Amino acid sequence: MPKTKIYIICPEIKVPTGGVKQLYKLAELLSGENYDVFLTHGKKNFKNNWFSAKVQFAYFPNLFYKIYKLTRKNKRKYIFKDFFKELFMDKSLPEKDSILIFPEVWGANIHTLTPNKYIVYNQNCYYTFNLFPFLNNVIEHSYDNTNFLGFLTVSQDSKEYLNLAFPNQKTEPICLGLNPSFSFSSNKEKIIAFMPRKLKEDFNQIHQILVNNPHFKDWKWQPIDNCTEDEVATILQKSAIFLSFNYNEGFGLPPVEAMACGCYVIGYAGNAGKEYFLSEFSTIVADRNIIEYTKVLLDKVITFNENPLSLINLGKEASVYVHKTYNLAHEKQSTLNAVNNILKNEIPI
């Protein structure tokens, strides 16, 4: 029996982005099972190189052109450009009996792109309605039509959100897994790591309040930005503390990666992060509470200055917990179970 073809449609973003990495990983996990899986871009030979993934590629410029037309703001501006582009474009699309997997970021009209059955890999439920029209009731949309098969998602918070929004649709959770490069190290330096991409204004307030405090005299504030996976892991393994600025997250993987490397993690859970922000080995701060965040960070820096092992041991507890809970074996099995459950009425599994 021939394998079912699956095309995973991936945005073309060159800078390191967690959502893109997970789409590549999804393609890798599904390959070699009951499916013939292709990571799909629009531009010939485009691929991301900041992480390692063994996937096969397909390219459909016409499909990505259609997506671009759906999502761009000024549609009239490009009428003539579109006319000439369409004249010379390769018009091929995925086979009609193949299954497509889209990310959640392309709005209300995914179902108009092709006649294929499709799944949406919803990595952040809080992006689901970003491109839906404001104060306009959409009757038929991406998640309410005969070709939509269901959601893959990445946390209990996301599952609850999607079940509330779409109670008649299938929602299958995936347990994300940690790359083995995110391993525990007890060789901690006085480094406070953070990712400036999220809530930079909150970090700036905390930094300005504390940077000249004498307790921070020998500490380094280390941004993690535009790094490869291995570079991120190296920074986290050296860092004593990681600051989380999760905000309305589908899961929020960076704090888990920091815990895996033995960092003491402080900060916002962003809703989904409540499942791993356990009080035994981390400190959750109410979203956007700058005063509380600053006080907690000051307290933990003083603790490390006086007794580094006390924080390192908590980091070890965190590392053991997240490696046990979010490992590659769990991720692979939960991914296969989720996709099989959605497709069991469409194809023989």
Brief description of this entry?
With 349 residues, the protein is α/β, with parallel strands linked by helices.
Topology at a glance:
Blueprint (H helix, E strand, L loop, with lengths): L3 E6 L8 H13 L4 E7 L14 E4 L1 H11 L7 H10 L10 E5 L13 E6 L25 E6 L2 H10 L5 E3 L15 E6 L5 H11 L9 E4 L5 H10 E7 L7 H8 L3 E5 L13 E3 L5 H17 L1 H18 L2 H16 L6
Parallel strand pairs: 1-2, 1-4, 2-3, 4-5, 5-6, 6-7, 8-9, 8-10, 10-11, 11-12
Helix pairs in contact: 5-8, 7-9, 8-9
Task: Summarize this structure as a short list of keywords or feature phrases.
elongated; seven-stranded parallel beta sheet; 10 helices; single chain; alpha/beta; Rossmann fold; 2 domains; five-stranded parallel beta sheet; 349 residues
Output the CATH class name of the largest domain. Alpha Beta
CATH architecture of the largest domain: 3-Layer(aba) Sandwich
CATH topology heading of the largest domain: Rossmann fold
What structural class do the secondary elements suggest?
alpha/beta
| Overall form | elongated
**Major sheet size, sense and barrel closure:** 7 strands, parallel
What is the helix fraction of residues, given as a range? 25-40%
Domain Glycosyl transferase family: 228-307
GO molecular function: glycosyltransferase activity
Keywords: Transferase
InterPro entries: Glyco_trans_1 (IPR001296)
